[in-house]
Amino acid sequence: MQHSYFDHNATTPVAPEVLETLLSCLGQVYGNASSIHHFGQAAKQRLEAARRQVAALIHADATEVVFTCGGTEADNLAVLGVVRAAPGADKHVITSAIEHPAVLSACAQLEREGVAVTRVKAGSAGVVNPDDVRAALRPATVLISVMHANNELGTVQPIVEIGRIAREAAVPLHVDGVQALGKIPVDVTALGADLYSMSGHKLYAPKGVGALYVRKGTRLAPLAFGGHQERERRPGTENVPGAVALGAAAELAGRNLAADSERLAALRDRFENTVLGRISGAGVNGARWSRTPNTSNLYFDGVDGEALVIALDLRGFAVSTGAACSSGAIAPSHVLTAIGLDADRARASMRFSLGHANTAAEVDGLAEALEASVAHLRRISVHA
Amino acid sequence: MPELASSSAAPIAVAMSGGVDSSTVAALLVRQGKSVVGLTMQLWNQRRMPELAPDGPTGRCCSIDDVYDARRVAEQIGIPYYVVNFEEQFEEHVVKPFVAEYLAGRTPIPCTLCNNYIKFDRFLEMADAVGAWQIATGHYARVRYDTPSGRYQLLRAVDPAKDQTYFLFGLTQPQLARTLFPLGEMAKPAVREMARGFDLAVAEKGDSQEICFVPNGDYAAFLSAYMKETGVEEPRTQGAIVTSDGRTLGEHQGVHHFTVGQRRGLGIATGEPLYVIRTDPATQRVTVGSGDELWCSKFFARDVNWVSIAAPEGPVAASVKIRNKHQAAPATLRPTAEPGRVEVVFAEPQRAVTPGQGAVFYDGDLVLGGGWIE
């Protein structure tokens, strides 16, 4: 059976160009980037070139990029690192209710350490209102953390406005950019972000590598202790092949972003229009007007999302009910609940996330399979 | 192992627990050339109430280890495999009634409720939803179609030691029509031998024991922990321990700690052995007496389901089993005017007829039906 992949927000395949770069680096560049000798210098050169490539994609200075083992570590380093480095005993953090667990769970940990946390709501559009962020400010606020694009809905958050609020209040702003990078343009200065999280495997690079942008002058306490790597922010021998792959992916993304976005948005819209035209009792979750180009989150009333994922997989289409990290969980998605969906509709919702390799024929096949599966599920009326 | 079957027919959904029985079922069907999809039901979050299992949530149903084993078998035999989450339904239809029954002074059997509401209801629905029509499980029982009556019949497994029909009396005709029990014709040692033959990683895995969501069989501790976790105030069911002629012998800590026929744990020292004869949640009394008082020759069963035969109009001779390990005893079934209520009159008195347990009616190997002891 042909299997088509529509779960790129969970992870992406490694791009052929990235794979080639990664393999040659793995095979040839084995020095420790901190070593003095020739081999160490060769590794260091590759590492720093990769850092420049990543910095270029987000319009930052290379010295502001810290490589991590992935998006979750970048989020944790940002949230825990900034708050723990902030002076004073009375501390407060503002985040949103639709953040990824990598941010929400880090905030929950801070609460256990005595930090106050405000989670601003997102409306039914799946977009945070900057006024809510402003209203949540306190004298003790030491960090604002709001994602750039939501992983489940694709909705893009008003980071520029939130950045302005943060600057006026002199509070650092962390932006979880894992789902935005490579899909929409990112300029950390224009956004007003002081920290920006990135993940390799959402960008056609491999798992196990990510990065955190840290604006010069931002106080950040490390999470781990060891050597002096990454300007004392992230100890441990550098994952040079991983960083090099992320660099290659960043360069590729920068080069193709405009064309890819346009193509993916057209495919996504073709898919949505077909599905919404053919299937009744279906609709888009979150704002259609402000989304990453590859993401579509739809509900099909009266359908059990868990059953639909399995039925579609058996027909050769890989989709998801939401974040892969929460699959198998009993509770409906915290994102869908936060934007006001009741439990039934949240369980009847599916995420379709397109990627570079998807074709119009695949998208049409998906729409057809979806129509058949939804009709079957409604006929036997399996309820969530 | 054979390649994944290329059958274009609708697949059979196998309920895979990660144990040797259901794993063998899946492998056997693949070997027979059937198209198979494996599904594991996630029924209970073993991370709940950690105080009940200080050594961690292993070795019990729905543990991460069991899912790992099922997934490994599915990979080995080359079938698509998914975990489906029925935790909410399981809590609603199995755990909550289990708790309520104990608090009402009865001794419930959650496995039957799980079969009625989860394995042969929700699971069948899920199988249908994903494009499978038939389901197969590792239960030891047999189903056959009886042409003269036009009914599907449920029969005991050929291995009497493993027969599980006592827990399956709630099955309906539409459920039986879609259900395969491939192990019903096999003895357990042969199943294990077959698992070894298939080289399944779980071939030597031990049999599951007890009630899957109750660690170490300590249901009283489970009830307390569950009520604490769900914020329900534990009802005060402390009361007197009395004899049937009205003498008070002592106090007890709650009726749900006692089950009919129980001898140990009464906390009363007397010359002759004392047994629990009945518990009465209304008065919170536990009545005890000598073993002789446990013998009873008739009782009523409610919510009777006639599995293999149409509901009889008049008396029916049958052998009746009143708990899983009970030797079925001859009895007459007398339907009452109340639908689904049957009077069971034994030829000889039976020991410890326990409210809340199932009463299952047999004619030889044939399961006529069953209900709940009042």
Radius of gyration of chain B: 22 Å
Task: Based on the coordinates given, report the CATH architecture of the largest domain in chain B.
Answer: 3-Layer(aba) Sandwich
The CATH superfamily of the largest domain in chain B is HUPs
> Portion of residues in helices of chain B?
10-25%
Question: How many helix segments of chain A?
Answer: 13
- DSSP E strands of chain A, number: 12
Shape of chain B: globular
**How would you describe the shape of chain A?**
globular
CATH topology of the largest domain in chain A: Aspartate Aminotransferase, domain 2
Give the class of chain B from helix and strand content and strand pairing: alpha/beta
Could you describe the largest sheet of chain A, including whether it forms a barrel?
A: 7 strands, mixed
Helix residue percentage of chain A: 40-55%
Q: Write the CATH fold name of the largest domain in chain B.
A: Rossmann fold
Give the SSE string of chain B: EHEHEHHEEEHEHHEEEEEEEEEE
Q: Distance N terminus to C terminus of chain A?
A: 28 Å
Overall structural domain count of chain A: 2
Determine the strand fraction of chain A and express it as a percent band. 5-15%
Radius of gyration of chain A: 21 Å
Please mark out the parts of chain A with pLDDT under 50 across 5 or more consecutive residues, or reply none.
Answer: none
